[in-house]
Amino acid sequence: MKINPIAKIKVMTYNVHSCRGLDGRVLPERIARVIEQFNPDLVALQELDVNRRWSKRMNQPFLIAQYLRMHCHFQPTIAVEGEHYGIAILSRYPFKIKKSEDLPSYSKKSFPGKSYIPLLKYFSEPRHAIWTSVIIGGIEEVYFVNTHLSLRAKERFEQVKSILGQEWLNMDSHKVPTIFCGDFNEGPRSRGYQLLKASFGEVKSSMAHKSSRKTLFSPLPLFEVDHIFYNGNLRVESVNVPNTPLTRIASDHLPVIADFSLYQGGQ
Predict the structure, then answer these.
(1) Whole-angstrom Cα distance, residue 158 to residue 182?
(2) Which of 23, 150, 217, 218 has an alpha carbon within 20 to 30 A of 187's alpha carbon?
(3) Is residue 138 part of a domain?
């Protein structure tokens, strides 16, 4: 007997580069239009600004969520003199925050306003993850996790181990279907990616052409650093890394989009 899914879920992860496109214009509405084209239910965003001088003092996550009429949680990873920079989750479903904290870091430096905007943040900024609980189809709980990991390989590996460990997802006794995505700053050959693959599938692995999996840099993608991992009673139906005139200019990353079917627990 064929078992029907209880819901369909469309997920997007997108590093939006402070909404500063490759034409130099800071346009949260343009990022919102990219997202709107694909109509996702859950969105993980990285590199967002709130009240930053270099991005015109905009509240970027609020403006994007307002345009899309979605629920939003923004988590700053850097907060200096009223200026904030961080990651966010958007959702068509109400959700609860289970955990939202800094990840392990070898260097916790101060970030004076002039130095972290915009250069030093790339190499020494604190890294964070947001772990949410979403009820899908009115009955099934799904975890949705967003992160933006370090540029340093050792630090990234420690951050992945932390998220999978007892203080976070606790994969030894983990039972809830989970979608874990973001900008991991690493590709399939890295230790962190391989550790994640022990507990999760990765949506782009089903794509026939490796070149179509790359997301950075958007005009000519060279690196596969943005990923959507998943486990539990979720099945991938389709994957898309849209390479269009709009996505090539809106950010320096291309988004990754995956369609899932969700089945009731135990199916």
Answers:
(1) 16
(2) 23
(3) yes
pLDDT beyond 80 at 8 = yes
In a domain, 142, yes or no: yes
Please tell me the distance from the alpha carbon of residue 22 to that of residue 43, in angstroms, as a whole number.
Answer: 22
Backbone angles phi, psi at 16, to 5 degrees: -100, 0
* Under 8 Å between Cβ of 47 and 15: yes
Q: Which two tokens stand for residue 263?
A: 């089945």
Range of the domain at 227: 7-262
pLDDT per position as a tens digit, 99-119: 999 999 875 544 444 444 444
- Work out the number of other CB atoms within 10 angstroms of the CB of residue 266: 5
What is this structure's pTM?
0.92
Q: How many domains does the chain have?
A: 1
- Tens of pLDDT, residues 46-95: 999 999 988 889 999 999 999 999 999 999 999 888 899 999 999 999 99
C-alpha span between 91 and 72 (Å, rounded): 6
Q: What's the CATH code of the domain at 19? A: 3.60.10.10
The rounded distance, in Å, linking the Cα atoms of 46 and 86 is: 7
**CA–CA separation, 184 and 195 (whole Å):** 13
